[in-house]
Design a protein that fits this description.
It is a single chain. The radius of gyration is 21 Å and the shape is elongated. The protein has a domain at 15-61 and 99-171. Helix 1 (5-15) crosses helix 4. The chain is built from four helices and seven strands; from the N terminus they run H-E-E-E-E-H-E-E-H-E-H. Helices cover 35% and strands 29% of the residues. With 176 residues, the protein is of the alpha+beta class. It has helices spanning 5-15, 78-89, 117-131, 148-171, and strands at 17-20, 32-41, 48-58, 62-64, 96-98, 101-114, 136-141.
Length: 176
């Protein structure tokens, strides 16, 4: 870790390698449990690899409708004002999906193995694939701040799931 926590977080986010993604997307009409396995080299201990396991609970996405009539403008030109009026007229068609998640610390486990990072990561990936759990992810990341990789996992799953969730909500008449 450096003396700059912003850089450390950025580095952790950009260093995360997703070796195995969940086969299923986040549920549209219910909660989803995503099991994660994060593999990282222990700092200052060559040949020691830390494996962290736990789960993220994704809550059912909520449909949010903006209230355009509450937006006040100040110092905006005519074009911005006209666009805002257009949005107000079509407000019933504006929808946003909000996803929530919860780290389940009750299922958190951590252990250290000996070997190379690639070897241990490959072994963990193989074990997870063999388990048949289709809502599991294997991530290779940094040891500190390791939990930034979980936020990256979460963002990836939202991006992967959003189109399907929107389509299913539309089919059920719950979006528009």
């Amino acid at each position: 870790m450096t003396s700059n926590p912003d850089f450390d977080r950025w580095y952790a986010a950009k260093s995360a390698r997703f070796l195995l993604e969940p086969k299923h997307r986040l549920e549209t009409f219910g909660n989803t449990l995503v099991n994660y396995h994060l593999v990282s080299e222990v700092m200052d201990r060559p040949g020691k690899i830390r494996v962290r396991e736990g789960r993220l609970e994704a809550h059912q996405p909520l449909v949010i409708t903006p209230n355009m009539s509450e937006i006040e403008t100040e110092g905006l030109g005519d074009e911005a004002q006209a666009y805002l009026e257009f949005l107000k007229e079509h407000e019933k068609h504006l929808r946003i999906l909000r996803y929530g998640y919860h780290l389940k610390s009750d299922n958190f486990n951590e252990y250290v193995l000996t070997g190379s990072l690639d070897e241990v990561a490959g072994r963990v990936k193989g074990e997870v694939e063999a388990s048949g759990n289709e809502l599991s992810a294997v991530i290779q990341g940094v040891d500190e701040p390791w939990d930034v990789a979980l936020v990256e996992l979460w963002l990836r799953e939202i991006r992967r799931s959003a189109d399907t969730n929107i389509s299913e909500l539309q089919q059920q008449g719950k979006l528009f």
